[in-house]
Amino acid sequence: MLDAVLCPDALLGDTEEYALGHRELRKRLQRIRRWYTVFEHSLAASDFSTWSNASWVLVILNPALLVSNTLLDELLAVLATGADCALPADPRGYTPGVVLDYASRPGFDRFVARLTTGPRCTAYDHREPWIYLVSGQALRALGAHHPDLSWQRVPALLASHTLIAQHAFVHSYADYHLPNRCEMLRLLPGDILTLLDVGGGAGHFALHFMQERGGQATLLERNAHAAALARARGIEVIVGDFGSIPATRQFDCVALLDVLEHLPDPLMALVKAHSFLKSGGALLLSVPNVGHWSVVWDLLEGHFDYQPVGILCNTHVRFFTRRALETLIADAGYRIQRWEAVCSPPPEPFTRFITGQHDPGVTPDLDSLATESFHVLARRD
């Protein structure tokens, strides 16, 4: 018998990305008998034995995870060696020599399959647990000695009886909305002193701009929870939809970082940005490239699988190559000043395949295949 404890993520819980991720998580963990949702202060690990008589308990502290179909089998195999607790490997540590090169769901599964070339398990390195499988007997024994036992402490308390299952692997997308996008600042010239960050989530980029440039940033965000977090950081926030908010002020720059691909009419959004820009104002963009090798590889194998994060995020409704994005920017009345390609080169097997398929009339764009996203600075005409 195998039960699961799930600790929800407050920030991601009402997003479409997390809804898809949660469905996929449950689909790949079909052997779970019962699911228990644990909110803060609701059910301590020490109390779980009064709820469940399960032989094993899967504890999911970070629910924003991609997992493989083999996750439970691999964790159970490690427990069968005599361990009491098993964690999967993750990007913080996995089989040496295996290249972390996935950027899609099928790519993730291909990567996990390659991990079987290494050892089945290694000692626990005391990393923060995202997900682990623990024997019910060990959990009950810990609870008897630690009345206020938290779920986070279980792997560390079991110490030498906790192992990392190296043939299992999970990927977290919990922090996809948290980066401050500091790499985008270098595209901005020194005359940018006021910034409107459209769809900037909890305001990490806006705050970074103010701290590094000493300018003034305003966040336009329709997610009320994210907007509240940004306001608590001292950022001026406008809550609403970019398409319907009137332009009562003008800025030196409008930033749309990983926003255009979520909009049904990106041309309208770029035209609308004119009304928020001063004469000669700047437009700062970050847009994923659908021509990246990870998407092409999947298409060659008949896949186009949406996922909670990445180029094929399930909330993306528009897709761009460099040529398509250049056309969009020009049609909206902007001149491109700086263009940077963020590279993530294809793995050697894919490169060998694609370069070996040359035929008259078919010339692979190797630069596009190696480009994960585009960073652009443009000026309004």
Give short descriptive properties of this protein.
single chain, 381 residues, Spore Coat Polysaccharide Biosynthesis Protein SpsA, Chain A, 2 domains, eight-stranded mixed beta sheet, 15 strands, 25% strand
Structure characterization notes:
The chain is an alpha/beta fold. The protein folds into two domains: 2-172, Spore Coat Polysaccharide Biosynthesis Protein SpsA, Chain A, CATH 3.90.550.40; 182-380, 3-Layer(aba) Sandwich (Rossmann fold). Helices cover 27% and strands 25% of the residues. The chain has twelve helices and 15 strands. The strands form two sheets. Strands 1, 2, 3, 4, 5, 6, 7 and 8 form an eight-stranded mixed sheet that branches. A seven-stranded mixed sheet has the order 11-10-9-12-13-15-14, sandwiched between helices. The longest helix has 12 residues, at 16-27. The termini are far apart. The mean pLDDT is 92.
